[in-house]
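B., you asked whether I could sanity-check this one before it goes into the benchmark set. Here's the sequence:
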Amino acid sequence: MSDNTFGHLFRFTTWGESHGPAIGAVVDGVPPGLAVNEADIQQWLDKRRPGQSKYTTQRKEPDQVKILSGVFEGVTTGTPVSLLIENVDQRSRDYGDIKDKFRPAHADYTYHMKYGLRDYRGGGRSSARETALRVAAGGIARKVLGDGIEIRGGLVQMGPHVVDRDRCNWDETANNPFFCPDPVAAEEWATYLDGVRKDGSSVGAVIEVVASGVPVGWGAPVYGKLDADLAAAMMSINAVKGVEIGSGMASAALRGEDNADEMAMNNDGTVRFLSNHAGGVLGGISSGQDVVVRFAVKPTSSILKPRRTVTVDGQDTEIVTKGRHDPCVGIRGVPVGEAMMACVLADHMLRHRGQCG
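And here's what the prediction gave me:
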């Protein structure tokens, strides 16, 4: 299997499977002299950790990260930073009944056809368990970026239910299990998702990630555009089926005069924008505005409702996926989206520094 590495100057490679003994990552391109310890990374992993509410999988993984290399006496050395997270709550027996069946909407069929075999225990390499390592790498990326850049993410839609932008406050994302910036919507979603969960089904979601403090100039046209790399980063996350920057798909319904982000001068001689339909990126280069990305996550594929499928030897059958699964996988996708934003920005920061000083 190829393509397990993401990034250019700041890049990380992940390894491991959902039900193996451990998962890990090697983060390369980290500048020397940065103060980094395991607690710096753990705070973000704790945000993603499963089993924290009844609305996520009840798999009890502490996701305790260990730094194996690249840090000496509390600072990075400039050498690869190796990270390890042990798997401690695998229940492979949950998948014994489906080892010869392809789960609809999962990667079972495509993995089997491509490689001639698959790890049926939770999907192996295709499992969202791998995203814990992205979050860990994102913790290091935030240290590279420094305190001047703030990255915030939240759930702005669950199923058909959308937040009210007039009620949204980023501080509210810490006050509910959905990372929702709208406190009223969060209460309504709790009742809604309870019904979905008890029905043995699942729903999708839309996640928004915003980076503030990004300076003008990051991004490299024509094939290294900041928004192109952000789109690739978010689309690489498990279960993501759509990505948009700024107004995204809605911009197709606007007229030119409405979509144009007009500019004016501040008294201090700097430029300000009067709107942000572009999502902070113009011509693939950051404009100095907030960088805004949204991505759509499909409903969790593992559900208790019987679905038609086929077996590995070509027989029609039905399947019910037992075990511990998220009724809305988008919830834990929030810290993953934040991490991928951090990794892309850290990469472009170093690439910009390398070309422009």
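One thing to flag: The longest strand covers residues 150-158. Otherwise nothing jumped out at me.
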